[in-house]
Specification:
This protein is α+β, with helices and mostly antiparallel strands. It is built from 11 helices and 7 strands. The chain has 3 domains: 98 residues, Rossmann fold (3-Layer(aba) Sandwich), CATH 3.40.50.10540; 76 residues, formyl-coa transferase, domain 3 (2-Layer Sandwich); 65 residues, no CATH class. The strands form 3 sheets. Strands 3-4-5 form a 3-stranded antiparallel sheet, with helices on one face. The protein has a two-stranded parallel sheet with strand order 1-2.
Length: 280
Amino acid sequence: MNIRGKIKSGHGVASGPYLKRPGQDLLAQSISGGAFLNGKKGDLPVVTAVGQADLLTSLFIVQSVLAAIYARNTSGKGQKIEANLLNLAVGFHVQEVTAFLHKGENPERSESGIPNPWIGAPYGLYDTSSGYIAIGMSSVRKVAKVIGLEKYNDEQFNSNNIIENRDEIRRDFNNVFKTKSTDEWLELLLADDVWCSEVNSFTEMVEDPQIKHNNMIMEYEHLTVGTVKTTGFLVSFSETPQKVYRPAPLLSEHAAEILKKYCDYKDDKIDAFLNKKSYS
């Protein structure tokens, strides 16, 4: 695919003091500061299990290539695109980094495991008798009223983001949530417009009715491994519905086709490239 330009570095950095360091998702997350947003106060910093830097860098490379093609069609000039894991890992935390730069202090994680160090009660996950429940940005007083916790039925708890005593509030709420199942709490809370949801494992997620409605689990056939199950398309197009045209390619499966179509290689040069690994 010749866009009359260059893509530089999809992994580490292209220049600077870390040029000779390895580029890998865990390392980029660790340098970015984001690991100190996760987990509980006093625990080890926690990186995400998902390769956030890998995925974000890939997505932004695609967007940048498309933007460069658009710019080339206007100006007639190609350009070099540089992307690296570290920039994307830092940029992903734009809200938290911006808050730090203005507050001048590192975020302090909660003792009880509230998922964001700069967010207070009642935000977070709670135990139920059958599993877990997630509570979003609803006021402490409103949630307390629905679950029958009179201690917090007071104007001072009208906020949906109480930082002071957030761990005590979370512990009190958690003790009450343990008394009913997730489904029972969802019925009560949703009826009162409290932001909440179940907390699914992958086993539960693939059976979730909304996941099925969204067609977020799909299958396709692969030449060597047979039926492959994976996640579906993240967005939908009204006029051009997506489908899998080809499975993931085998090593060099389409190399000859690509070299001929996009690089204008002749058959003898393609053979030399594939057999001798020559790039000349």
